[in-house]
Amino acid sequence: MPKTTYDSIKPPDMSFDDDDADSNIKSLPQTKSIWDLCIQVTERAELNVAKGIDGKGVVQENTNKSVESTLFVVGAKSAAKTSVILRFLDRDEQPKATTALEYTFGRRSKNNNLHKDVAHVWELGGGIALSNLIEVPITKQCIKNLSVVICVDLSKPETIWTTLESLINTIKLRVKKVIAELKLECPSDANLLIADCLARYGSDHPDKDAVDLIPIPITIIGSKYDEFQNFDPEKKKIISKTLRYVAHYHGAHLCYFSSKMEALVMKTRGLLGHLVFKTQLSKSIQTDHTKPLYVLAGMDASNQIGMPQAVVGASSSPLDAYNSYASPSLYWSPMDQWKQLFLSTFPQEAEAMVPEDPTKDSKYNENIIDSVRSQKDEELERFKKQQERKMRDEARREGKLL
Hints:
- This protein is of the alpha/beta class.
- Helix content is 42%, strand content 12%.
- The chain is built from twelve helices and seven strands.
- Strands 2-3-1-4-5-6-7 form a seven-stranded mixed β-sheet, sandwiched between helices.
- The longest helix is centred in the last third of the chain and has 35 residues, at 367-401.
- The termini are far apart.
């Protein structure tokens, strides 16, 4: 084999004219690094997710998009509203008294952890005294994803009817006004709210024409069940059946709660989680008044609840006392009959109203601030007296001049 010498190999001609430099550079292949390719694939995947396109190129419903919902908690004073919120958000905090309207929020990660659903949580303190603040969270901007929770204290039946009647009426009027405003801007959204409300009962429900549904999800929570479970059985029956009818009539969910009973905490968390995060909801209901109630909207019926009437052979029963005391007219609606039974058994207490001047409310005492405020009030009173004296003196001088 002939020996090859490197001297005999001529290098290729690599020379080129300056005029052709730009054109040659442009003709070179444009390569991408592995990082550029990764970025491109990631951007394409995120775009597909935003459009609802799966890995096979099929358009799917977008379940990864972040959703913002509003949860508005109202109710009687000391009815465990804050405890319900803290246990729902899984916060290990000591409940504190709520001042007027307070806000917090919770978040829940989606399946891909890239998006999070947000729950805006409002709590109204002060019982029914500050119900005029209901219009703050209930607006046309958030009503499409709004749920309202009404807490009643089962251990204080003397406050239950007043609380429910006042808050439900106030909420109903506010929702009606907001939906009327929404219809002017977006009729389809308003109609969808009403359709969703009716769908909870369905066209074949026996009471579909005998109820007055509120077009947003309402939940009635009976708190302090740990105390309520020791009540007289007949009184427990009246309270539970009345709450069932009120919830059924207005299209509300009903569940009992106690922060000291973990099973009830989990039930309540599951229900609230479904309302704001659209999680899966347990459909097993409990209507036995000797046990903690759990009844979903549309899953009860008037014929299952029954009507208030005398209990045969139990002359000492509150139901008998009701019939002899009230003698309900045949023209009374079922709601009126349940109301009269409840009020005759549990006379309602008037809720203490908030003082016109909150600075005089002993609940908000602050020694340092109050002492400074007292000093300023005294200075203001002296100034007023000086001004009055000055005006009288000027009036006298003008009288003498005249």
